[in-house]
Amino acid sequence: MDRQYFLTKIRTLKLLALKIAAHGRWDLEALMKTVPGPLVLKLLQELLIATCGKLEVEDETLMHTLTDPNNSDHHFFALLLYHRWCVQTVLQDCLPKKPMKVNSIPVPGLTEPVIQMVGISEEKLARIKKLFGKCKSTLVDGLNLNRKACLPTQECFAFSESVMGEMSLCWDKGVTQGVEYWGRQVAYDLGTVYFYETDFYKALDMFTKVELWNKSVSCKDGIPLKTLSGYLKSCQAVVHSKRYDENVVNAYHTCIVQKDLENLVGILTENFETRKLPATAADQTALLLAQIRDDIPDNLPKSFMEVECLCHILFTLRGDCYYLQRSTEKHKYLVNMISKILEYCSTSEKKNLAAYLQHLLCEEGPPMQSMMKSFEPIKALLGFEVLDKKPSDMLQRCTTSPLFSLLDRESYDSSDSILASTFNQDEIWTLLCTMHAQGNLKVVIDYWKLPKDLDRLFGELTIDVASVCAYVLIAKAKELISVKEHNHAVILLNAADKTIRDVSGKIAKIIRWEVLYSNLLSAKISGSNPQVVDIDKKVKSCLCALKVDSDIFPHESLVMECVSHLLLSKDWEYLSSLHDTRVAFTEYARQLINVCKELPGVQHAKAPAKVLWDTSVYIFLQQNTGKRVRLGNQAMLPKETYKKFILTVNEPLVLSVLISLLTRIYNLTNSDIDIDRTNNFCAVWPDAISNNMLNTLDGPYIKELMVQLVQHALSINPLQSTWLKTYAEIQYALGNREDALKWYLRTASVASNHFMQPISGFVFDNEVYTRLVKCCVDLKHYTQAAVLLSQFFEEPDYIGAFKYLQEKDCQDGMDIYYDCLWDVNIIEFLIYLHDKKGELDKKQQLIQLMGNPELNSNNPDSVLQLFKTQKRAQFFRIMHKQFV
């Protein structure tokens, strides 16, 4: 009986403590100031027990329960309170302690009494610190839940009639509040943490939420308004009223990762004015669009179309091409957006936009003409002489291929020019039926040009309207393929197939091959999988025709695209089974596959790599001028055919192997620089080539092919850091210092998420930094070279840095890099230099920099390392903005 009475008394006292805390409206800051830490922890644990009925003793378990949707509203509030206490406890422990003031005069021989509240145990504190990051992220997730919380009031803890009787819990008497109330306190705590972590962008976001929610609630307890105002002013002073480049890039990458197209539209639109995103944003957006298009081929949202148009404008501004399917809605959005951004464009960008708008006029004719006339900026850009052209002039320009024409228009009369200007299969059929008598159809064929094999097959047929119509349709389709209008070309080819299939099976077969060729090219340009039924089966059927005795075979370009498609789809078993075909590059593809199958195992890959190596070396011989001949057991490819083949390959692993192979061979022919030293596959290749063979290699051809192959790879994936670094090494080897610096910085930007993360030592080692210094010195950017020498090497080279800082012909804006310095020796040397020259303003700037608290050598290593990482990123961002 006594034991039961004792337990009841203890439980009642605990609930009485909770009742008192509820009377104070659960003011956590007041509790932590007036109650010892262990008692606050015990109080929160009792609240968790009371609201849930049990207590998860593991802190790590509690971190995962906050976002559980099954939590009751009062248990959710208890968890919020516990997480807030964890965050505030760690923050108070990290902040410097204020020494206690002693007002009385100390008496000799007596100890001054100092009362200090007991803190939580070191073990508990260490456990909370370990989970501090998880606790922060859990609170952020809790804010996003937008759910209600029930605050226990005094009435929730009701005594029974007996003073020592049971105390009942009545949660329905609690006050239910929305996120506007409890979210203020959570956001304030998170903002305080971010503020002391110097992440002022996130801190400002949190404090802004607090200020906003404060306006929507009547009770503002728990938030010190004056302190909040001070935090807001401090954050705004650092961030100003707008975000810095880092925050914009961070928001951009968040949209890319989360595939948030709606917010991405706003970021890209604002970027046309601010230009804060890196140059790689266009490529990264294009890859995102291709991925979404593959995942959701149908019912794409409107924001997808807007992002696609904005991405197209980004490519156009820098003079590149981006495949965009035409539609009236897209054209309206494009023209409207271009008219808005013209005022922020440079002269070269305006020229690129003007060229694209003239292309749209050619393609779309009068409707586009009237649309553009409604925008004054576009009228000023293009001029009235362009916008007032006759529709017939624009149509004639549109039907003329920029590369070559299969139609000889000089011998055409006025009636035949109508046939030349139309690309509609029904109109072509009608014109041939009404304009030409049976005897004049031969004259129409004479005006068009087709490949010899196809022309020979048509020559075996009786000349009638059907054969002539098929002839003209194929010629027009080939002309459309040459200007990359593949969808329209397929329509004409299908019409030609329907016209001729009952007359000549061979011609129909060639037409179907052309349809396959156009579909493969269209898929490659758009960066998506071919939207054609049984595409793999059609590709294999086409390649199978190479092994069958016949008088017609698919043309070389089609075979290359088929092999490239099978490489990309990783159908390597079928390619491995192709023997004794009529084209030599299928054998070369088989050798490539044999190497790729064994990777990343270097030892197993060496044997097939040796076969591929020997074949490639024989191809690069100077006497290999074009004919397919055999040297020993090696089947040789003409060098131009080999170049055309490898530049059709799209598979990343195969491209990496080819790049590694070419850079290795180039290194052996040019021993003055090592390009492939960081290549993942350099160990699989032989270490040398015999002198007799080395002297007969075509060095200029190898160099040209290596550059073109890496450029081709980067056009497929411009965010592959290995390829970017290889291209930078190539530019350095060729002596193009500015281009090398540009591509090194692009590599660093991609590898570090635009300098949001430290650059890996594997990407940038001492050898790369040495080359960066060499590039800066050759460009007379001596301050950049000095910063690199003193702050980026494992062992600073102060002698070289001091030498470059004294150079007179410096062309890099010396003092703009002072904010990136953290090495005290360099700062002191610069103070001495400016004092010697009488440049007092720059000297004062450096003296103020010396007073930065983060430069104090007594700081913990973690603080010093974080400060160095931030300054390195700041330095690289400035260089990236200058060169890229």
Sequence of strands across the biggest β-sheet: 1-4
Number of strands: 6
Question: Which overall shape is indicated by the principal axes computed on the Cα atoms?
Answer: globular
Overall pLDDT level = 77
Which properties best describe this structure?
globular; two-stranded antiparallel sheet; 6 strands; 884 residues
Task: Give an account of the 3D structure.
The structure is a single chain. The chain is mainly α and 884 residues long. Helix content is 64%, strand content 2%. It has 44 helices and 6 strands. The strands form 3 sheets. It has a two-stranded antiparallel sheet. Strands 2-3 form a two-stranded antiparallel sheet. A hairpin with a 2-residue loop joins strand 5 (630-631) and strand 6. Helix 34 (652-669) packs antiparallel against helix 36 (699-716), helix 37 (721-733) packs antiparallel against helix 38 (737-751) and helix 38 crosses helix 39 (766-778).
Topology:
Elements (H helix, E strand, L loop, with lengths): L1 H22 L4 H7 L2 H16 L6 H7 L7 H22 L27 H9 L1 H14 L3 E3 L5 E3 L7 E3 L5 E3 L1 H18 L3 H17 L8 H15 L5 H14 L2 H14 L6 H15 L6 H16 L10 H14 L5 H18 L1 H8 L2 H7 L1 H4 L3 H8 L15 H8 L3 H11 L5 H6 L5 H8 L5 H18 L3 H15 L4 H22 L8 H10 L11 H13 L3 H5 L8 H14 L3 H18 L10 E2 L2 E2 L3 H8 L5 H18 L21 H5 L3 H18 L4 H13 L3 H15 L14 H13 L3 H10 L6 H8 L18 H14 L2 H11 L10 H23 L1
Antiparallel strand pairs: 1-4, 2-3, 5-6
Helix pairs in contact: 3-5, 5-7, 5-8, 7-8, 8-9, 9-10, 11-12, 12-14, 13-14, 14-15, 16-20, 22-25, 25-26, 26-27, 27-29, 28-29, 31-32, 31-34, 34-36, 36-37, 37-38, 38-39, 38-44, 39-40, 40-41, 41-42, 42-43
